[in-house]
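A further point concerns the way the authors explain their paired sequence and structure data. Since the whole study asks how a given chain folds, the encoding of that fold should be made plain. A single example would do more here than another paragraph of explanation. An entry of this sort, consisting of the sequence and the corresponding backbone structure tokens, reads as follows:

_____
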Amino acid sequence: MLTEPRGTMHGWIWRANLLPFVETIADLVRCRLDESGLTAGVEDSDANNDLWFTLVLDGQPRVEMHFAGTDDQVLVDLELDGTDESFEIRAALLLGICSSYRLAPEAS
């Protein structure tokens, strides 16, 4: 994961981790998530053709996420506005976990 100026992160996650990744960020910033809009937007994105989907979570802090999908991965750019260091650390850790491990839903 490449980290740029404070509040900007780039990386990738496994496609199967997309929903847990965005749900966790949305919870951290106390913002509602439109799951169907997220899924459709990422499905229409294409990393090979530089077609990105942007999702803005207007919470505390405001987070702008850009996604471009491949077959089994999703490229991720995060722009965090007005964040504190602890939030940045959590977001970076989450990005690292979602690119290193394939998360599985809890069994019912």
User: Anything to note?
Assistant: The first strand starts at residue 2 and ends at 3. The CA atoms of residues 5 and 79 lie 10 Å apart.
